From TrEMBL:
SUPFAM superfamilies hit by this protein: MetI-like
Major subcellular site: membrane
Alphabetized InterPro entries for the sequence: MetI-like, MetI-like_sf, UgpAE/MalFG_permease
Gene Ontology CC annotations of this record: plasma membrane
GO BP of this protein: transmembrane transport
Sequence intervals crossing the membrane: 12-37, 74-95, 107-127, 139-160, 167-185, 205-224, 236-255, 267-286
Lineage: Bacteria, Bacillati, Bacillota, Clostridia, Candidatus Alectryocaccomicrobium
Membrane topology: Multi-pass membrane protein
CDD domains on file: TM_PBP2 (cd06261)
Residue ranges constituting the ABC transmembrane type-1 domain according to the UniProt record: 70-285
Protein's UniProt name: Sugar ABC transporter permease
The family this protein is said to belong to: Belongs to the binding-protein-dependent transport system permease family.
């Protein structure tokens, strides 16, 4: 082991800055979890604030808005998890059928580009594009005689807008893994299928999809850990008071509770609740990945 560490010391030194940053900004702040069990006051500080035990958890679970926030989070997050598997797989399969290499690279680049844009930028773009009065989407709908749709202001439509805009943003990036898997499929399978008279559709059903299945199952299992991550950046940059009933998620609820209402202890309790559930889901997802595909971290 020591000889290996010496041999790979350059690689470990390259990791050192990331480890230091991870320790400073992720592990040291864990000490602040204690305020979830206190009636925390910035004036008294952590050491002198009164202990309330599970009082903050009792308080947040009794809030009439908390079940709604949890329901919104699960709806948006589960929709993203499912469609972030189905849509990239479909896109990768369609892209794989393009025979022109130049056209294929162009389509892939265009689909890949939104991934590198922050939600601050995309939020402004989508606000204009989806505007009920001047947005291009509603102008197109108007050509077919349809009434304008208030995508970001209608509480019934807002969660689905969040899901589909997330899919649009990450579709190209998510397809990369599946495209890499497709390139690894033995071409002799397709050659044999052609000899047997199989159409492109049957080749996809009986060769491509079975070869993609282990990757799809693995990524589906690993995605379970994100069931409570509905996307703070996206929702915060695109929601408003009019859609709180269906668009308010756990992360935005924590933000408003802690930084706008200055209820630091209850917001910490909500954050700890989310972290505990997410930890259980991550452990479960890795266990399922190990059982179904044999994937292990070490």
């Amino acid at each position: 082991m020591l000889k290996r560490l010496c041999r790979e010391r350059a690689l470990h030194l390259m990791l050192l800055p990331s480890i230091v940053l991870l320790f400073l900004f992720h592990y040291i702040p864990l000490g602040g979890i204690v305020i979830a069990f206190q009636d925390y006051s910035p004036v008294r500080g952590i050491l002198r604030s009164d202990w309330v035990g599970m009082g903050n958890f009792t308080y947040i679970f009794s809030l009439p808005t908390f079940p709604r926030v949890l329901r919104n989070t699960l709806l948006i997050a589960c929709g993203k998890v499912v469609l972030n598997i189905l849509v990239p797989v479909t896109f990768a399969l369609l892209l794989n059928e393009i025979r022109s290499a130049a056209f294929k690279r162009t389509i892939q680049t265009v689909a890949y580009l939104p991934h590198f844009l922050s939600w601050v930028i995309l939020g402004g773009i989508l606000t204009d594009v989806l505007s009920p009065s001047t947005g291009i989407v509603n102008r197109i709908l108007g050509l077919f005689g349809m009434e304008p749709v208030f995508f970001l202001g209608d509480a019934a439509i807002f969660p689905y807008t969040m899901i589909w805009t997330e899919i649009w943003k990450e579709m190209g990036f998510g397809a990369v893994i599946y495209l890499a898997t497709l390139t690894g499929i033995d071409p002799t399978y397709y050659e044999a299928a052609v000899v047997d008279g199989a159409t492109r559709w049957k080749q996809t059903v009986y060769i491509t999809l079975p070869c993609l299945a282990p990757t799809i199952v693995l990524l589906s299992m690993l995605a379970l850990g994100n069931v409570l991550n509905a996307g703070f950046d996206q929702v915060y940059n695109m929601y408003s008071i009019s859609v709180y009933s269906t668009g308010d998620i756990i992360d935005t609820f924590i933000y408003r509770l802690g930084l706008e209402d200055f209820q630091f202890s209850p917001s910490a309790a909500v954050g700890l609740f989310k972290s505990a559930i997410s930890t259980v889901l991550i452990i479960l997802s890795y266990k399922l990945a190990d059982i179904t595909t044999g994937y292990r971290i070490i």
